Amino acid sequence: MHGSLAALQPRPPRKILYLTLDVSWPPPPPSTLKRYKPRWDLAVDLGCGTGQVTIELTLFKKVIGVDNGLDSSQLMTVDQSSPFGGETGSSPTMAWLMANPEGSRFEFVNFNAEDLSFLAPSTVDLVIAAQATHWFDYSRLWPELDRVLRPNGTVAFWVYAEFRLPAYPSLTPPITDYAQGTDPATSLGPHWQRPGRTISENHLLDVPEPSWGKTDQVFFTRSHYPDLPSPHLVILRTKTTWGTLLTYFRS
């Protein structure tokens, strides 16, 4: 991932993490949370990229970040002061891992999401993918997850939709045209990798169901996408400046 773009990736809302772990929101006190233990042995983050979501899974005894393009320069911690969750520059994720007691429980491996051969059968409690789901080959991934997941294990994937400026609703159409249009001179649309980008733009509705179970889909889109069923309130928000927004466009 390009460094500038990675620096502007939004942090996952805490509600997503607690929904994934099936814990109430707002979060209970840490002492209560740690007593909530359906199974906290092994979590796997597919397409972990910078590792900024991977390192949120501190409740697990072991956490493995998986990415087929992994290198030390890609792993980074998150600057909490940045409106988009920017990188700290010279502080890699490994620095965070070494500075925190939980660090020894994290591992990062260079593998495809569809090849988890380094994992024994029925050993994984949670598999997540944050903004990577649309790149997977599900004809291979679902059987592999069926192999490694423990009974009653959890798979949780999420992506975020195209951003909008609530105070300036008239800007939504040009933002959408810029991101999803068809003119290669004025839009990013023709330059995205397909079909991955299309799957993401369609809110993962095109992801096939696994043969071994049915998935639940939850949409935090309010009324912005009226065709989506049972939408919830938007939970991914940030305050930023016009300058930072321009940097995001240029990335």
From TrEMBL:
GO biological process, any: methylation
Gene3D superfamilies recorded: Vaccinia Virus protein VP39
Pfam families on file: Methyltransf_11
One example GO MF annotation: S-adenosylmethionine-dependent methyltransferase activity
Residues covered by the Methyltransferase type domain: 44-157
Entry keyword set: Methyltransferase, Transferase
Record InterPro entries: Diverse_substrate_MTase, Methyltransf_11, SAM-dependent_MTases_sf
SUPFAM superfamilies the UniProt entry points to: S-adenosyl-L-methionine-dependent methyltransferases (SSF53335)
Family to which this protein belongs: Belongs to the methyltransferase superfamily.
PANTHER family per UniProt: METHYLTRANSF_11 DOMAIN-CONTAINING PROTEIN, METHYLTRANSFERASE TYPE 11 DOMAIN-CONTAINING PROTEIN
Protein name: Methyltransferase type 11 domain-containing protein
Source organism of the structure: Armillaria gallica (Bulbous honey fungus)
